[in-house]
Write a sequence for this structure.
């Protein structure tokens, strides 16, 4: 049995990387944005290299990279897909339980607003190389002295979660760390975790690359109802377990067509959980909060507020259309506290649509149409639909 002291270099390297992030890394990112983030990642790579040089076996052992093999690659991908499912399921629950997490996500989106190839390099490519070299390379090579693979995976995953210095992201990043650590322990090939880490981070920044951050910010602000949250989490956890189990069986060389009773029972349970998740989501869909079709005739400004009720909390789709004989109008949705939750824009004839997060309760639809001239006969058709 290995002495506990022999594991100390792994914890020391982790502590050094945290100190570097808090001091130099924080300063670089505050002053130089994404360029500072890229410099921080390179600094982490330097820590990984210097640490590997001080260990028995050196860089060659810590950063072992080999040509991919089809069996290992397919097993690694299955484990990653399953791990990704678990991280999304965990993030879904956390976003509902801790709404402040949306503010953190939006703050990160703002930091990444420079976009372009610099975003890809600083957030996808460099972290894939540098963070994997540090954690699955140098640090995990220290913990490889431990005989039990699941202990190695647990320690490395927890450290990876702590490394991100974010209480809200700790659980998802820890789960991701479990997956990458397991892949490295089974393959001994750093290339798999590097490529999968790059892919994972790229998936995270895709909305920022193709919508200038707006879609990601709106998504982070969405708060669904408890039934939807539970259903979504069940689907992701069920799918996650199925893919992780598939990857583990591939790594262990077990037949995919023959399983023992326990494996068969767990598979059936996963499918039942997934089916229950879809049923939960469908049961809360289709609710209509507001459905108005107004034909108006007036001579002065039309300014009315019409109340409606949201039957369940969740994300609704708002569809508004105004058609007038030259008068300008707009539609706004307010809650009972006077907080604006949706605005259509203004015009004579137009349509507007978009998602809005509503709690269960009462709201007001405020319709304003200004005649082109006072005392002029004005006609307007206004349609407002708020549905799930």
């Amino acid at each position: 049995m290995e002495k506990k002291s022999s594991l100390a270099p792994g914890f020391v390297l982790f502590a050094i990387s945290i100190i570097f992030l808090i001091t130099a890394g924080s300063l670089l990112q505050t002053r130089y944005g994404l360029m500072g983030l890229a410099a921080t990642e390179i600094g982490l790579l330097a820590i990984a290299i210097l640490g590997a040089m001080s260990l028995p076996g050196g860089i060659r052992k810590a950063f072992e990279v080999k040509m991919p093999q089809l069996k290992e690659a397919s097993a690694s991908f299955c484990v990653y897909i399953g791990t990704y499912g678990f991280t999304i399921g965990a993030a879904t629950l956390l976003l509902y339980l801790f709404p402040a997490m949306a503010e953190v996500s939006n703050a990160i989106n703002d930091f990444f607003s420079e976009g372009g190839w610099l975003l890809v390099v600083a957030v996808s490519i460099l972290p894939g190389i540098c963070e994997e070299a540090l954690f699955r390379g140098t640090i995990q090579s220290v913990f490889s002295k431990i005989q039990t693979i699941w202990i190695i995976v647990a320690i490395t995953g927890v450290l990876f979660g702590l490394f991100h210095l974010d209480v809200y992201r700790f659980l998802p990043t820890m789960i991701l760390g479990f997956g990458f650590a397991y892949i490295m322990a089974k393959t001994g090939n750093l290339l798999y975790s590097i490529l999968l880490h790059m892919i994972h981070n790229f998936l995270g920044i895709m909305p920022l690359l193709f919508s200038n951050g707006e879609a990601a910010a709106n998504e982070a602000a969405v708060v669904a109802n408890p039934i939807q949250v539970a259903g979504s989490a069940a689907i992701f956890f069920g799918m996650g377990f199925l893919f992780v189990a598939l990857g583990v069986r591939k790594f262990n060389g077990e037949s995919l067509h023959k399983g023992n009773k326990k494996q068969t029972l767990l598979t059936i349970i996963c499918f039942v959980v997934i089916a229950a998740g879809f049923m939960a989501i469908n049961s809360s869909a289709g609710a209509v909060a507001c459905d108005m079709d107004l034909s108006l005739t007036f001579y002065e400004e039309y300014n009315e507020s019409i109340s409606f009720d949201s039957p369940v909390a969740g994300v609704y789709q708002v569809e508004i259309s105004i058609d007038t004989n030259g008068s300008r109008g707009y539609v706004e949705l307010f809650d009972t506290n006077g907080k604006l939750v949706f605005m259509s824009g203004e015009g004579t004839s137009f349509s507007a649509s978009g998602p809005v997060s509503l709690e269960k309760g009462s709201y007001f639809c405020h319709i304003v149409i200004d005649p082109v001239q006072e005392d002029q006969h004005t006609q307007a058709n206004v349609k407002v639909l708020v549905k799930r």
Notes: Residues 1-5, 212-223 have pLDDT under 50 and may be disordered. The domain at 288-387 is CATH 2.60.120.380 (Jelly Rolls).
